[in-house]
Design brief:
The complex is a heterodimer of chains A (255) and B (332). With 255 residues, chain A is an alpha/beta fold. Chain A has helices spanning 52-60, 82-88, 96-99, 106-117, 122-135, 152-164, 182-199, 210-216, 234-239, 244-251, and strands at 5-17, 23-36, 41-45, 67-72, 75-76, 89-92, 170-174, 202-206, 219-224, 227-233. Chain A has a six-stranded mixed beta sheet, with helices on both faces. In chain A, helix 7 links the parallel strand 7 (170-174) and strand 8 (202-206). The longest helix of chain A has 18 residues, at 182-199. Chain B is an alpha/beta fold. In chain B, 32% of the residues lie in helices and 23% in strands. Chain B is built from eleven helices and 13 strands. Chain B has helices spanning 46-54, 80-90, 98-101, 108-115, 125-142, 148-153, 161-173, 191-208, 243-248, 253-261, 328-331; strands spanning 2-15, 18-31, 35-39, 61-64, 67-70, 73-74, 91-94, 179-183, 211-216, 228-233, 236-242, 312-314, 317-319. In chain B, the strands form two sheets. Chain B has an eight-stranded mixed beta sheet with strand order 7-8-9-3-10-11-13-12, with helices on both faces. In chain B, strands 1, 2, 4, 5 and 6 form a five-stranded antiparallel beta sheet that branches. The longest helix of chain B is centred in the middle third of the chain and has 18 residues, at 125-142. The radius of gyration of chain B is 21 Å and the shape is globular. The two termini of chain B are 37 Å apart. In chain B, 41% of the residues are buried. The chains are: A alpha/beta (255), B alpha/beta (332). Chain A binds chain B through residues 47-48, 151-154, 181-187, 189-190, 193-194, 208, 210-212, 214-216, 235, 248-249, 251-255, and chain B through 41-42, 161, 190-195, 217-220, 224, 257-258, 260-264, 267, 269, 271-272, 274-278, 281-282, 284.
C-alpha cells in the first residue's frame, strides 16, 4: 500500500546577499523524509524557529522547497500540477480573526476557492457552500455574515470550511488548535476527529501543545533548529523519548 | 492577614444610554505568600480585574466595589495620590505581550535603570550610579539571564519573547513588591520557555514570599503550583477555592467542563476519543444572558437559572450555581 503523502529529503534554505559576490546561506529545514497514511494524523512539534511552519508552508505550496520531493498518492507535486496540490493539500492558519478578510461575507470567502479551482456554476457553488457549512457545524444562514459577527470558534469553523470546500485529502493545521480557548478548542478537536472518521482526512498538526498531540496524532516528528531529531509512533515516542531534547520538551509539560 | 481583599467588584462600561456590566460582583482575596490563579476564557474580564486593581482603566470604565482593602486600608477611601503611592510601591504588574510593552527606542539597560527606585540606594551621586548598574545586573541574574552584558546593551526587538518576558519580571521585582500580578505571562511562549518563566515566578514566591496573582486562560499552567484558584466566566465568578478542591471536586458545571476539555489531565482517555465540550460559544458583551451567564450553554440548566445565583460557601470553597454537582451520593 502506498502512502497518501510521501515526502523525501525535503529541505529549505534562505539566501541573503552579504556583498556583491558573497551570499550567506541559512538553513531553515535540513533534509527530512516521512510518510503519511490516509486517515492518520502526523504531529510536528518543536520550539519556535525550529522549521515547523516552514514545513507546513512547503507542503501547502506557499513556499518553494530548495530540494526534495513531495508525492501525493504516488504522483510528484511540482510547479506543473500546482492546481492539484492547491485543492488536495489545504492550510489552516493560526488566528482565524486575521486570516479571514473582514470586508467580505462568509459566502464570498468560501466561493473564492471554488471559482479558482472548479468549473462549477453559481448554483452548484452555493449548494456546495451550504453543504460545507453544515458539515463544520454552522448554518446556511451564515453565508450572509461578515467575519466580525462571528465568535472565534465559529471563525475557526469558517476557515475549516474554506479548507474543506475543495474536498482535500490532507489538511495542514498550523497552530490552528492550541491558540483557541479551552472550551472552544475541545469543540474544534471533536469536529476534526469527526471529519477524519467520516471523510478519511489526514492531518498534519503543527503545534506546541503536547496534550493535543498525544490525544489525536498517530505519529510525530520532533524538530529542533531545522533538524529532524526524532520520528515515530506518538505513543512510543512519548513513552520512551530517545533524544535529550525530546525528553526536555516532554518534561516541560508535566504530564 | 489578608493582603488584598475585594468584595463585590463591579466594572461597568458606559456606552450610549445604558451600561454593560463586564465584571459582575466578583470577590477576590489573596493571603500573604500565596499564589492565586485566576482562570477564564477570553472576554471573561480577567485582565479587567487586574487593571482595576492597579487602577489603570480609563475613564469609560466605572469601577465600584463594596470594599477593596490592601492590608486593611480601603483603597477607594484614600486620596488619589496616596493610593497611587501604595500601588506603585507594593503592587507590580507584568503585561501580556512583553516585546510590545518594552520601549523599542531605548536599550534594556536604560529601561532597567529607570525602574530601580532611588530609595534603595545610598551614598553620593557617583556611588549611586555604580549601585544602580550593579542592581540591574543582579536583577537579570535573579530572573535567570546569564549573559547580562549582551542583554543590557540590546534593544527589545533583538531579544526573543522569552527574554523580554524575563526582563519584564526583572523590572517588576525591582521595587520588591508584595504582590505581583502576572497577566498571562506565558501565553506567547513555547513550552520550554514557559517552564523557565514559571520556575522564576515560583522561585520569587518561595524565596521572597511574594504573593502572585496569576492570570491565565488555561487550567494546565495552574494545576501544579497555585495554592488557590478562582474561575471566571463572562465576568461572573463561578467558583473559587483551593487548587485541590477545584481540580478534584469541582462543584460548578463550567469548572468541570474546563477540566474535562483538556486532554492532559486524564491519562486514561482513549486515543482519539471525543472530548467533553460545552455547546455553543462565549457570548459577546452586547448579548450577555440574564441571571447565570453560563445558563444557555449549561447542561444542567433549569428554569431557576435566569436568576443570578448567590455564592454558596463550604470550607473556603465557594461556588455560585443553583444546581451544583453533588458528591454526597458518591461518598456513601
Amino acid at each position: 500500500m502506498t502512502a497518501l503523502l510521501e515526502v523525501q529529503a525535503l529541505e529549505k534554505h534562505y539566501y541573503k546577499n552579504v556583498s556583491l559576490f558573497k551570499r550567506e546561506t541559512k538553513t531553515a529545514l535540513s533534509p527530512l523524509s516521512f510518510n503519511l497514511q490516509e486517515g492518520e494524523t502526523l504531529a510536528v512539534i518543536g520550539e519556535s524557529a525550529s522549521g515547523k511552519s516552514t514545513l507546513g508552508k512547503m507542503l501547502a505550496g506557499a513556499e518553494q522547497p530548495s530540494g526534495g520531493q513531495i508525492f501525493l498518492e504516488g504522483q510528484e507535486l511540482n510547479e506543473s500540477n500546482e492546481k492539484l496540490r492547491n485543492s488536495q493539500i489545504r492550510l489552516i492558519f493560526q488566528d482565524p480573526k486575521k486570516s479571514l478578510n473582514p470586508y467580505t461575507k462568509v459566502g464570498k470567502i468560501l466561493s473564492a476557492p471554488l471559482m479558482f479551482n472548479t468549473q462549477k456554476s453559481v448554483k452548484e457553488r452555493i449548494e456546495k457552500i451550504r453543504d460545507t457549512l453544515m458539515k463544520v457545524g454552522l448554518l446556511p444562514e451564515h453565508i450572509e455574515y461578515y467575519p466580525h459577527m462571528l465568535s472565534t470558534g465559529q471563525l475557526q469553523r469558517v476557515s475549516l470550511a474554506r479548507a474543506l470546500i475543495l474536498d482535500p485529502k490532507v489538511l495542514v493545521l498550523d497552530e490552528a488548535v492550541a491558540s483557541l480557548d479551552p472550551s472552544v478548542r475541545a469543540q474544534i478537536i471533536n469536529l476534526l476527529l469527526d471529519l477524519q472518521d467520516s471523510q478519511n482526512l489526514s492531518y498534519i498538526l503543527i503545534t506546541h501543545h503536547l496534550g493535543v498531540v498525544k490525544h489525536i496524532s498517530n505519529s510525530v516528528l520532533v524538530l529542533k533548529g531545522g533538524e529532524l531529531i526524532e520520528q515515530g509512533n506518538t505513543a512510543e515516542v512519548f513513552a520512551n523519548p530517545q533524544h535529550k531534547y525530546t525528553q526536555k520538551l516532554l518534561a516541560s509539560q508535566n504530564f | 492577614m489578608l493582603l488584598l481583599d475585594i468584595r463585590n467588584l463591579t466594572i461597568e462600561l458606559r456606552s450610549g444610554g445604558n451600561s454593560i456590566k463586564a465584571v459582575e460582583r466578583v470577590n477576590l482575596s489573596i493571603k500573604e505568600g500565596e499564589v492565586h490563579g485566576l482562570v477564564g476564557e477570553s472576554g471573561s474580564g480577567k485582565s479587567l480585574i487586574a487593571k482595576a486593581i492597579v487602577g489603570v482603566l480609563n475613564q469609560r470604565w466605572k469601577v465600584t466595589a463594596d470594599r477593596m482593602h490592601w492590608r486593611g486600608q480601603d483603597l477607594f477611601r484614600l486620596s488619589r495620590k496616596k493610593r497611587r503611592q501604595i500601588l506603585s510601591n507594593e503592587i507590580a504588574m507584568i503585561y501580556q505581550e512583553p516585546s510590545r510593552c518594552l520601549d523599542p527606542t531605548s536599550t534594556i539597560l536604560e529601561q532597567l535603570l529607570e525602574s530601580i527606585p532611588s530609595d534603595q540606594l545610598d551614598g553620593n551621586l557617583w556611588d549611586r550610579k555604580k549601585q544602580r548598574q550593579a542592581r540591574a545586573v543582579a536583577l537579570l541574574h535573579k530572573v535567570g539571564i546569564k549573559d547580562h552584558d549582551q542583554c543590557l546593551q540590546s534593544y527589545p526587538h533583538q531579544l526573543s519573547e522569552g527574554y523580554c518576558q524575563k526582563i519584564m519580571i526583572a523590572m517588576a521585582v525591582a521595587k520588591k513588591p508584595d504582590l505581583l500580578i502576572a497577566d498571562e505571562p506565558t501565553t506567547a511562549l513555547e513550552s520550554t520557555t514557559r517552564a523557565q518563566i514559571l520556575r522564576v515566578l515560583k522561585g520569587l514566591n518561595q524565596l521572597k514570599n511574594t504573593s502572585i496573582l496569576l492570570i491565565s486562560h488555561d487550567l494546565e499552567t495552574l494545576s501544579d503550583w497555585t495554592h488557590t484558584v478562582s474561575v471566571l466566566y463572562c465576568g461572573q465568578m463561578v467558583e473559587s477555592g483551593s487548587t485541590e478542591q477545584i481540580f478534584n471536586r469541582p462543584h460548578h458545571p463550567y469548572t468541570q467542563a474546563l477540566i474535562n476539555s483538556v486532554p492532559d489531565f486524564h491519562m486514561e482517555l482513549a486515543h482519539k476519543s471525543r472530548l467533553f465540550a460545552l455547546e455553543g460559544s462565549i457570548p459577546t458583551l452586547q448579548h450577555l444572558p440574564i441571571g447565570c451567564r453560563l445558563g444557555p450553554r449549561c447542561p444542567y440548566a433549569q428554569r431557576e437559572c435566569v436568576k443570578t445565583p448567590t455564592a454558596h460557601k463550604d470550607h473556603n470553597h465557594s461556588y455560585s450555581c443553583h444546581y451544583p454537582i453533588d458528591y454526597s451520593q458518591e461518598q456513601r
